[in-house]
Automatic annotation (TrEMBL):
InterPro entries named in the record: Auxin_biosynth/cation_transpt, FAD/NAD-bd_sf
Extent of Basic and acidic residues compositional bias: 80-94
Origin superkingdom: Eukaryota
Keywords, in A-Z order: Oxidoreductase
Region (Disordered): 68-100
Pfam families with a match to the protein in the record: Pyr_redox_3
Name of this chain's protein: FAD/NAD(P)-binding domain-containing protein
Entry's transmembrane regions: none
GO molecular function: flavin adenine dinucleotide binding; monooxygenase activity
Length: 536
């Protein structure tokens, strides 16, 4: 908006105004013009001079009107700029007060467990006034870990190493104490780790607010739909309670434990098998008692979960006359694979536990390279049919339902809320961009946690997926800065931001440096892919 300040007629009017000013200020010129006009007509006035006076008067009035119009337009421009600035400041102001439990946010995180809290800390470290909301379906932080079997522990150890530099492998921030403060052993149980997360949510402060104050509990997200936002993508998040949330960016941190995978061919008889994650404490006790009395327990899957189940069943008594059979389609049985990445083979701790069990005289039998093809119940027995390495079908029986240690698959889960807005690979993990873990199919939607996978690198341990928190947070905060603080876009595509925008970007860079210095930021996955650190 610029009025007529640059219109071609303005120059002509300016010249006329200058002539008018000259006539007003130069009495000699006025006398000369008057004298030249005397006696020319009946009134003694030259008509040309009269027309000149009239024209000058008219242009004088018009210029005054234009000056008034331009002043009004300039005032409107200032008012509009002030309004835009106030809107930007209002957007950046924290909206997560008591009366903002529902509404519109810059970022919504789904899930208040390790990955959700971890990425929230990265966001708020760089931008403490960010309007971010964490939606958690349960009534507490870390509920997934509370649902773990009591005997299940972390594979990765926790040590009191923070004061000496190296971070605890299982902590989710580059500062504060790790889980070692809340555990009596070097491998935390699910309950102990949940206590660590709950303590962190209450004690971790951003300004005068604790991390827990950003969480809304009891909110089960039912759908995530895309919507238009200033020419870009935004999201409408519907919940089972009927409350809707809107967000410019969404981070899915829902994890995998809520999405157990049972192969359809093994669940045709629903009562013949049960997934590892669905066993109650009483059921585990029944399996242990039955095994110790001489029965055979059948487990499909010889990964970490399969062996964990076997160890618990056999640990019940000092003497156990039964046996545990693990049916594993991999020829190595999960233990002969020498790949460095523990995400694809048994961890050293699990191998050590197996050796201890076998030394005690208890029996674990692994059917390597065998594919379980059906599970049925006949009378009081449960039958697992499998095809061995030679292609021959055989059957083993048990007095209890077959345990399925067949992992988790978000993409194939009926409860998956990402089905319509993400593509998935064969393992059920969302297809993400490697540079910032953004869902390829839907711009503005990010994923953190054990679901992240790039090439052959699986981020299923805390010490792995925490290395992507700063990456995701930095990308989102940088985009928000451009959204609300850009001044112009250069021909080469680079964006110029205002002074406040520069300060925000510097804060993002500082956060990323902090995470990198603490070993919690990885962008180059080449070493993780080849497994040979330092050779290149």
């Amino acid at each position: 908006m610029s009025g007529l300040s640059h219109h071609p007629v303005q120059a002509y009017l300016d010249d006329t105004a200058a002539l008018l000013d000259t006539l007003k200020d130069d009495s000699g010129l006025r006398t000369l013009l008057t004298s030249a006009a005397e006696g020319v007509d009946e009134d003694g006035v030259d008509p040309t001079i009269a027309r000149l006076h009239s024209l000058i008067a008219g242009f004088s009035d018009l210029k005054a009107s234009l000056d008034e119009n331009n002043a009004r337009v300039e005032e409107e421009d200032v008012t509009e700029e002030k309004h835009d600035r106030e809107m930007s400041e209002e957007h950046d102001r924290d909206m997560s007060e008591d009366d903002d439990e529902e509404g519109t946010f810059s970022v919504v995180i789904i899930g208040a467990s390790a990955s959700g809290l971890g990425v929230a800390c990265a966001l708020l470290q760089a931008s403490p006034d960010l309007d971010v909301r964490i939606l958690e379906k349960s009534d507490c932080v870390g509920s997934t870990f509370l649902s773990w079997p009591s005997f299940t522990t972390f594979i990765s150890p926790s040590f009191y190493s923070n004061p000496f530099g190296p971070l605890d492998l299982n902590q989710i921030t580059p500062s504060e104490n790790g889980p070692q403060t809340f555990t009596t052993s070097q491998h935390p149980t699910g309950k102990e780790y949940a206590e660590y997360l709950q303590n962190l949510s209450k004690s971790k402060m951003f300004g005068d607010r604790c991390l827990e104050s950003y969480i809304t509990f009891g909110v089960d997200v039912s759908t995530i739909e895309t919507a238009n936002y200033g020419g870009g993508t935004a999201f409408n998040i519907a919940t089972s309670s009927g409350t809707d949330y809107n967000a410019r960016y969404v981070i899915y941190a829902g994890g995998e434990y809520s999405h157990p995978y049972s192969p359809p061919s093994l669940t045709k008889n629903l009562n013949a098998s049960i997934h590892y994650s669905a066993l109650s404490p009483d059921m585990w006790s029944s399996y242990a008692a039955e095994c110790c009395s001489g029965s055979t327990i059948i487990i499909v899957g010889a990964g970490e979960a399969g062996y964990d189940a076997a160890f618990h069943v056999l640990d019940g008594e000092a003497v156990c006359s039964g046996e545990v059979i693990l049916i594993d389609r991999n020829s190595g049985g999960g233990e002969n694979n020498k790949v460095d990445d523990p995400s694809t083979t048994l961890s050293p701790r699990t191998r050590d536990r197996k050796i201890e069990i076998l030394k005690s005289g208890k029996r674990i039998i692994v059917f390597k390279g065998c594919e379980c093809i059906s599970i049925n119940k006949e009378g009081e027995e449960y039958l697992a049919q499998y095809r061995n390495e030679k292609g021959k079908d055989e059957t083993v029986t048990s007095k209890l339902p077959v345990i399925l240690a067949t992992g988790f698959n978000v993409g194939k889960s009926e409860k998956c809320i990402l089905k319509d807005i993400s593509e998935f690979d064969e393992s059920g993990r969302p297809v993400l961009s490697q540079d910032c873990d953004e869902v390829v199919k839907t711009k503005g939607l990010f994923v953190v946690g054990p679901m992240v996978k790039h090439e052959e690198v699986i981020f299923c341990f805390v010490y792995k997926f925490r290395c992507r928190f700063a990456l995701v947070a930095g990308e989102i905060l940088s985009r928000l800065t451009v959204d609300y603080h850009s001044i112009k876009t250069n021909e080469d595509g680079t964006v110029v931001v205002d002074e406040e925008g520069h300060e925000k970007l510097e804060s993002v860079e500082k956060m990323c440096r902090n995470y990198q210095e603490k070993g919690m930021l990885i962008t180059d996955l080449s070493c993780a892919v080849c497994g040979d650190v330092g050779s290149c």
